C-alpha cells in the first residue's frame, strides 16, 4: 500500500490546516487574507516530491508568513530580534545558519530562512553535518523568499543569492561569502558548517550581549 495520500485525503488535511490558521489569526487578519496566504502556500508546494508532508509544510510556512506579516504591520509584537538567512536554494548554507543560530540563541532570537530559487529537499550532506553536532533538521524544508519575511526581519543575511533580496530601510543587511555545499561530500561540508557557526556566534553576541 502506498503512503502517498490521495487528492481527497490531501484536501481533507489542508481543510484542517485552513481552519487552524483561521482560528489562530482571528482578529488579526481578515479571513480572506488568511485564505489567500493559505492558497499561495499550497500552490508553492504543489509539486513537492513528498506529498504526505505537504499539509505540514503548508501549515508551518503559511503560519510563518502570516506571523511575519503581522510583525511587519505592527499587529503582532516582536519580543526578540528577527534574523533572516537567504541563499539561492535554502537547502544548505541558510538552513545551517538558521539551525545553528536557533540552537545558540535558545529563544533569544527568532530565526527564519528562505531561498531565492528553493530546492525540493535539503542537501543530505548538510542534514548529516548538522546531525553530527546534535541538530536534527530532517523535518525542515526549503522555503521561498517572500516579501513579508524580509519586512519583518531586523537583520537580513544573504549567502550568494545575488540581488534577489529586496532592500528596505531600517534593516541591517550582511552578505556572508561562503562556499556552497551543493554537490560537496560531507568532509567538505563540515568546514562550511564550522565557519557558519563561528559567524553565528559572533552575530548572536552583537544582537544579544551577555
Characterization of the model:
The chain is an alpha/beta fold and 210 residues long. The chain folds into two domains: 1-77, Helicase, Ruva Protein, domain 3 (Orthogonal Bundle); 79-210, Rossmann fold (3-Layer(aba) Sandwich). The chain has helices at 7-24, 31-44, 54-73, 93-105, 124-131, 147-152, 186-207; strands spanning 82-87, 110-115, 155-159, 172-175. The chain is globular. It starts with 6 loop residues before the first helix and ends with a helix.
Q: Gyration radius, to the nearest Å? A: 17 Å
The best one-word shape is globular
Helix segment count?
7
Mean pLDDT: 92
Strand content: 5-15%
The SSE string, one letter per element, is HHHEHEHHEEH
Give a quick summary of the entry.
This protein is of the alpha/beta class.
Provide the descriptors you would attach to this structure in a database record.
210 residues; Helicase, Ruva Protein, domain 3; Rossmann fold; 4-stranded parallel β-sheet
Topology:
Layout: H1 7-24, H2 31-44, H3 54-73, E1 82-87, H4 93-105, E2 110-115, H5 124-131, H6 147-152, E3 155-159, E4 172-175, H7 186-207
Parallel strand pairs: 1-2, 1-3, 3-4
